[in-house]
Amino acid sequence: MNASLHAELRVLARIWIALLALAASTIGLALLPLGKGNAAAALVIALAKAGLVLAWFMELRERYPVLRATCVLSAAMLFILAALSAVDYLGRAPATLHDTVPAVDRPSAPFTPR
């Protein structure tokens, strides 16, 4: 077997083991009572897994700079849209029962067609 191929397989095996370790940490994290910290930690782990997959298995580390820039700008745009949605959701006034349940006017007599 070629030495460079052997080195590449070693790197891919290490990446695969890292992905398995991150998946196991995601499962372990679900069992810990961290409150709101669970979501933040799970997002950090998911970003790490996505970064590994993008860099090695999709080979973005070796591709054209324009392709890498497109991926970075797409991720930035997704982040901006998520942030704007969160600001919109958090900036709204809390709804009251009066605001959410419409009043229904019922006729006193049954409907009779003409």
Automatic annotation (TrEMBL):
Q: Which Pfam families match?
A: COX4_pro
Keywords from UniProt, A to Z, are: Cell membrane, Membrane, Transmembrane, Transmembrane helix
Q: Where found?
A: Cell membrane
Q: Does the keyword Cell membrane apply?
A: yes
GO cellular component entries: plasma membrane
Tell me how this protein sits in the membrane: Multi-pass membrane protein
Source superkingdom: Bacteria
Q: Specify the protein name.
A: Caa(3)-type oxidase subunit IV
Organism, as annotated: Pigmentiphaga humi
